[in-house]
Design a protein that fits this description.
With 161 residues, the protein is α/β, with parallel strands linked by helices. It has helices at 46-58, 104-109, 118-123, 133-143; strands spanning 2-10, 16-21, 32-34, 37-39, 63-76, 82-92, 110-116, 148-149, 156-157. The chain is 22% helix and 35% strand.
Length: 161
């Protein structure tokens, strides 16, 4: 199982940063949006991974990690490729995006950064992963302080077809 940590990076206006990816192999011809994040490295905690991934993907180094808000298990391409993710509420102390630390494949695949409001996320026709991100965050901020499991056992994400 691949372990992943993702940041729900929030700016001073309470907007959330998403990154748009567009790859030739993706079935999403207009691209898809993700929160900053990625796989844990050896001996790395989820929180350490969030800090590293936010810095690598955005150049933002000053963040405060508040808490884990969402968790999920999902599959990429087939049911034999499970991933477990934790999504952390993270405050951005800066909003200036720098692409200096992107990996080679990210330099090619990342096409846009955007700060989104919750209502904007709920109303968009764009592809956002996880698909229930806005509704889960709205619920988390309104009435819970425990991580919400947003696993959808039927969801198999196909980035490569």
């Amino acid at each position: 199982m691949r372990l992943t940590a993702r940041s729900i990076l929030i700016n001073e206006s309470n907007k959330i940063l998403l990154i748009k990816y567009l790859t030739e192999k993706s079935k999403h011809t207009d691209g898809f949006w993700l929160t900053p994040g990625g796989g844990l490295e050896k001996n790395e905690t989820f929180e350490q991974c969030v800090k590293r991934e936010v810095f690598e993907e955005t150049g933002i180094s000053k963040i405060d990690i508040r808490e884990c808000a969402l968790t999920r298990t999902f599959y990429v391409n087939n049911p034999q490729s499970p991933h477990y993710e934790r999504y952390y509420i993270t405050d951005a102390k800066s909003t200036e995006i720098k692409k200096d630390n992107l990996l080679e494949y990210e330099k090619e695949a990342i096409v846009k950064y955007k700060w989104w409001g919750i209502d904007e996320l709920k109303e968009t026709e764009e592809v956002i992963y996880p698909s229930m991100l806005a509704h889960a965050l709205e619920k988390f901020f309104k009435d819970t302080k425990f991580p919400i499991d947003i696993t959808n056992p039927m969801e198999i994400i196909d980035f490569d077809s």
